[in-house]
Design a protein that fits this description.
heterodimer; A: alpha+beta; Aldehyde Oxidoreductase, domain 3; five-stranded mixed β-sheet; 19 helices; B: alpha+beta; Uridine Diphospho-n-acetylenolpyruvylglucosamine Reductase, domain 2; Uridine Diphospho-n-acetylenolpyruvylglucosamine Reductase, domain 3; Enolase-like, domain 1; 3 domains; five-stranded antiparallel β-sheet; four-stranded antiparallel β-sheet; 12 strands; 23% strand; globular; AldOxase/xan_DH_MoCoBD1 (chain A); Xanthine dehydrogenase molybdenum binding subunit apoprotein (chain A); AldOxase/xan_DH_MoCoBD2 (chain A)
Chain lengths: 790, 261
């Protein structure tokens, strides 16, 4: 039995009380004295040369305080991408400048090229309409293949073929992979599209810039998943404000899914405007703007080939992908299709030879970046689809072909041919668990019952593996990452024994305030209710690299464990003095320090009090106070994995797909709060179903966004998803972090899309539609019906 | 949203008078107009709210059928029409979500004539009469194309009179994002024949599928339309469905409506 409020307990989320009672405090809820309001003027054309912008009429409008354009930001830097990726010919990638406001050209519908600050938002919006811009419209570059083929039309004039890099992973293996394909008994080929998604966090972005002319300090309140990274980017790359003069505060944030990892131009713009006006400047994005300016996700076009022998043993795998970058390189845009995608193409399989080629292509569309799963859903989708196709071609059961190729549970640590070392795992165990929970034996009876009702039932299987807790810094540095990927925590034990934990990982829906308190309660033997988690303010917390990539628990949680070890070590020294014993004889269990083999002990609270009221204290050898900070830089990624099963009913008359059963068997390593893990999987699966059946960003050939609102962009609703069966009883603890935890946030979004598509293809093929081997996502009724027509 | 004046008349006569002023626009449930105003696509100077006019509200069984006040919200129709005209009540209960059904009105829907709205199909298939402040208009004459009706400037729909069919059903296949009708088919059988009205599919908005009406008038069974096929010509095509897909759905939904009626 887990300790109440400790590790393994399904403690209710303490933050939900304020969220559910309307007491959350989001950026838009913050009103600073004297604040002015900003509105951005956004391009209505996908591609155009800015000839002139006449702001004179706008400046005369009622309430207008300032009108800024790209000209006002020519002296500052650009928003960089976080990873410099090398092309396979050894050349460093091309990095176009991403200005605060568009300058010279507009490059996508929604590209902000002017900003109005006024007394009210409506006045700012009115004045935006009075700006007269002369923009020469240029042909839009939308289709990636065309962007690569036609070098006369360029998103950025200096990048001639619109290709940022042409990456080969691992280039040295290319010849051997190609040779294996030459001689392979069987080759399965699949071309597929990983559809572009719009993240649609419940809370739209918002930022308030607040410059204090008395101190010269800047404060930025913003909707961020990682305030320290935003501060670093603004300081080091964009505006040159030293970190000690810039505080970034991300208060309650209503979801991110990746889209709020990145620094956006609006953040720098409100800071600059605040300084110019000597007033706080606030901007709140509306939903229509969000569709046009939040980083999108996915958008790969891939050809994947799997070489096998006749028994279905994988011999070699190769892929060619065009990855859409959009109009500028967002912060993680270049690592997502490379180091978060190519390195995962081995999946949980022991394919000996793998080669991945990715071309990153600029187009006149909203920038694309990491979105829940980031690269790993793209890898998993390609792999799990081609495996199902191969199984079908070879006449092998989909379970069996996977089982035949899994990495053996005894083979860990396992070095893949794409540069990773999996520390631990048991893919047979999760797939067996899935098989048990899916009631495979009862499928035929269920299918028959569906047939009676005129429906086609199908089953889809997928297995997945993820590299989480992105790290270690020295490795990612070699790969081109411009930052380190550790995390940090400070444990501040207050004088009366309660505890503030200042953590680098930001919480915007994950439940850190609950889970992190559980960790401390377990580790220090204190009541979880005496532990407060503080995050989201760079002036309070030591440092943080943010919340993404399912890394908070594995990386920041481990930093907390290291800091707690330091607290215990110091507590032992204090206890040794108070108990007049040797430090080596002091034991710490269940929140008390005792002398081994005796009943002499001091409680955690007594030690804390003594540290702050050091009347009986070893002052000559030990500083007062009880506060410790630790940075944790992991030795490796963590590798959660699992198996998903989806059962669908297809309506052959309409093409409508209904998901009737969905089962997940995941190995997340050690689980801290099972309820929250279940919730994370539910959310991820819902998003995966969204991608598979409903969601898709569509541009027309002029680069106009056709899915610019919820009237055309289909988000999953409660009735689009079934009741899920979620299991995480298969556990192979991570071997290199103190928690044995692997991460669970992205799993659902990774494992789900191939399971759903495999199920629909299975349903159609079982019904005799033998010509159907693949349908691109989203599998809308229209697409499914059209495919059935042959 | 731009600034505007709001007036809330309590009678049809006051509303008509208020609509006579320059830049005035009738506001019913506001489910289309208010979002358009928020997006600055519409900027009326004065809104004349029709939702406080008692004589325009309510559902009432009369000699000539069911009379629904134009300012009656969908949710009220769903509840109060159920005993008299279940197919109409079911249609109303499937529009939007609870907040839409609490605000949106039948009069607003018909006057807006969105090509994917549900109510126009019910009105046309029922052979309803649209009653305005100055005249009565047969449904067949009322709908005149996308977002276009026979209403004159300043004319207000005050009620809708539905003859009650012997049997009827509405089938809607939802567009996945908006959940408006990608295709909706309303089938109503009267003593003198069957009427089939289709929404969501027509380039010019709601229309009657007369071929199916003929077949079903002779034989009111799903099999009766099996051999028919609606031409995709003149049907809508967009990212949610081609004209051919919509034409196919019209037939599928017609059969299902007949089976359900």
């Amino acid at each position: 039995m887990p300790k109440d409020g400790g590790i393994g307990a399904s403690t209710l989320r303490r933050e939900d009380i304020r969220f559910l009672t309307g007491k959350g405090r989001y950026t838009a809820d913050i009103s600073l004295r004297g604040q002015a309001h900003a509105c951005f003027l956004r391009s209505e054309v996908a591609h155009g040369r800015i000839r002139s912008i006449d702001t004179s009429a706008a400046e005369e409008m009622p309430g207008v305080l300032a009108v800024l354009t790209g000209e006002d930001f020519t002296e500052v830097g650009g928003n960089p991408t976080g990873w410099l990726v090398q092309s396979r010919n050894g050349a460093t990638m091309k990095e176009p400048k991403r200005p605060v406001l568009a300058h010279g050209k507009v490059r996508h519908v929604g590209d902000a090229y002017a900003m109005v600050v006024a007394e009210t938002y409506e006045q700012a919006k009115d004045a935006c309409e009075a700006i007269e811009a002369d923009i020469e419209e240029l042909p839009a570059i939308v289709d990636m293949a065309q962007a690569v083929a036609d070098s006369s039309n360029r998103v950025h004039d200096e990048i001639e073929d619109n290709v940022v890099f042409d990456w080969g992973w691992i280039e040295e293996n290319r010849a051997a992979v190609d040779a294996a394909f030459e001689t392979a008994p069987h080759v399965t080929t699949l071309e597929l599209v990983n559809n572009r998604l719009s993240p649609n966090a419940m809370e739209p972005r918002a930022s308030i810039g607040d410059f204090d002319s008395g101190t010269g300090d800047y404060k930025l309140y913003t909707t961020s998943q990682n305030p320290h990274l935003t501060r670093l980017l603004i300081s080091a790359f964009v505006m040159g404000i030293p970190e000690n003069k810039l505080t970034v505060i991300a208060p309650d944030v209503g979801g991110g899914f990746g889209s709020k990892i990145y620094h956006y131009g609006e953040e720098a713009a409100v800071l600059a405007a605040s300084k110019r006006l000597n007033r706080p400047v606030k901007w709140v994005c509306d939903r229509s703007e969000a569709f046009l300016s939040d980083a999108h996700g996915r958008d790969h076009v891939t050809k994947i080939q799997l070489a096998t022998d006749r028994e279905g043993n994988f011999l070699a795998l190769r892929t060619e992908t065009l990855a859409n970058m959009g109009a500028y390189l967002s912060n993680f845009a270049t690592c997502t299709p490379t180091f978060l995608h190519g390195t995962l193409m081995a999946g949980p399989y022991r394919t000996p030879l793998v080669y991945v080629n990715v071309k990153a292509v600029l187009t006149n569309t909203v920038p694309v970046d990491a979105y829940r799963g980031a690269g790993r859903p793209e890898a998993t989708y390609s792999l799990e689809r081609v495996i199902d196709k191969a199984a079908d071609e070879l006449g092998i059961d989909p379970w069996e072909i996977r089982r035949r190729n899994f990495i053996d549970p005894g083979a860990f640590p396992y070095t893949t041919p794409v540069g990773l070392v999996y520390d631990t795992g048991n893919y047979h165990a999760t797939m067996d668990k899935l098989r048990e929970l899916s009631d495979v034996a009862g499928f035929e009876a269920r299918a028959e019952e569906s047939r009676q009702r005129g429906k086609l039932r199908g089953f889809g299987l997928s297995t997945w593996i993820e590299a989480c807790g992105i790290a270690p810094s020295n490795l990612v540095g070699v790969l081109g990452c411009r930052v380190g990927l550790y995390d940090a925590a400070t444990i501040r034990v207050n004088a009366t024994g309660n505890i503030s934990v200042l953590v680098g990982a930001h919480s915007h829906g994950q439940g850190h305030e609950t889970v992190f308190a559980q960790l401390i309660a377990e580790k220090l033997g204190v009541d979880a209710n005496s532990v407060e988690i503080v995050h989201g303010d760079t002036s309070k917390i030591p440092f943080g690299m943010g919340t993404y990539g399912s890394r908070s628990l594995a990386v920041c949680g481990s930093a907390m464990m290291k800091a707690a070890d330091k607290i215990i070590d110091k507590g032992k020294k204090i206890a040794a003095h108070m108990l007049e014993a040797a430090e080596g004889d002091i034991e710490f269990t269940d929140g008390s320090f005792s002398v081994a083999g005796t009943d002499r002990q001091k409680s955690f609270a007594e030690i804390a009090f003594s540290a702050y009221v050091p009347h009986n204290y070893p002052l000559e050898t030990l500083e007062p106070g009880l506060e410790e900070t630790a940075f944790y830089d992991p030795a490796n990624f963590t590798y959660p994995a699992g198996a998903y099963g989806c059962e669908v009913e297809v309506d052959p008359e309409t093409g409508g797909v209904d998901i009737v059963r969905f089962t997940c068997a995941d190995d997340f390593g050690n689980v801290i709060n099972p309820m929250i893990v279940q919730g994370q999987v539910h959310g991820g699966v819902a998003q995966g179903i969204g991608q598979a059946l409903l969601e898709g960003v569509v541009y027309n050939e002029d680069g106009q966004l056709l899915t610019g609102s919820y009237m055309d962009y289909a988000m999953p609703r409660a009735d689009d998803v079934p009741s899920f069966t979620v299991d995480h009883s298969c556990v192979t603890p991570c071997t290199h972090n103190p928690l044995g935890a692997k991460g669970c946030g992205e799993a659902g979004a990774i494992g789900t899309p191939p399971a759903v598509v495999n199920a629909v293809v299975d349903a159609l093929r079982r019904a005799g539609h033998d010509h159907i081997t693949h349908i691109d996502m989203p599998l809308t009724p229209s697409r499914v019906w059209t495919a059935m027509q042959g | 949203m731009h600034n505007f004046d709001l007036v809330k008349p309590s009678s049809v006569a006051e509303a008509v008078a208020a609509l006579g002023s320059e830049g005035a626009q009738a506001l019913s449930g506001g489910q289309t107009l208010l979002p358009s105003m928020k997006q600055r696509l519409a900027a009326p100077e004065r809104l004349v709210s029709l939702t406080d006019i008692a004589e325009m509200k309510g559902v009432c069984r009369g000699e000539e059928g069911l009379v629904v006040g134009a300012a009656t919200p969908h949710g009220v129709v769903a509840r109060e029409a159920k005993a008299h005209y279940p197919a109409l009540a079911w249609l109303a209960g499937e529009i939007g979500d609870p907040s839409v059904r609490a605000r949106g009105t039948i009069g607003g829907s018909l006057a807006n004539n969105d090509p994917a709205a549900c109510y126009p199909a019910a009105a046309l298939a029922s052979g309803a009469t649209i009653v305005t402040d100055r005249r009565e208009i047969a449904a067949g004459d009322f709908f005149q194309g996308l977002f276009t009706t026979a209403l004159e400037e300043g004319e207000i729909v005050t009620s809708v009179r539905f003859p009650l069919p012997e049997r009827a059903a509405y089938m809607k296949f939802a567009q996945p994002a908006s959940r408006f009708a990608l295709v909706g088919v309303f089938v109503a059988q009267f003593a003198d024949g069957v009427r089939v009205a289709v929404t969501g599919a027509g380039e010019d908005g709601v229309f009657r599928w007369t071929e199916a009406e003929g077949a079903l008038s002779a034989d009111f069974r799903p099999e009766a339309v099996e051999g028919l096929s609606l031409s995709a010509e003149g049907l809508l095509g967009d990212l949610h469905g081609t004209p051919a897909y919509r034409a196919h759905l019209v037939k599928v939904l017609t059969k299902r409506a007949v089976a359900a009626a």
